[in-house]
Amino acid sequence: MPNLYFCQPHAQNQGMLRAVLSMEDCGRLVRPESATFLGEHFPSFSDAPDDLQDFAVVGVGVGESSDEWHAGYYRFAANLTDLNAALLCL
What we know:
Low-confidence stretches: none
Mean pLDDT: 87
Oligomer: single chain
Number of domains: 1
Strand content: 25-35%
Number of helices: 2
Largest sheet: 5 strands, antiparallel
Helix content: 10-25%
Shape: globular
């Protein structure tokens, strides 16, 4: 099951696990084409500029990978407050 992390670089938050999602729910929150693939290992954001906006990261395991979602981590821009509200509706 994909993991959803909230990242807040200005608060030196490297990524807080916010939810464990089904693939169906993951697709409701973010489309694969709107996310940037970061690689197979959770990235370090310690070098990020202080003014970098909040964002979310989705981690997809090998067992959940598909043609749309390859195994690894994806970053996508998101208003975390709005994203949290959407999570509560799932």
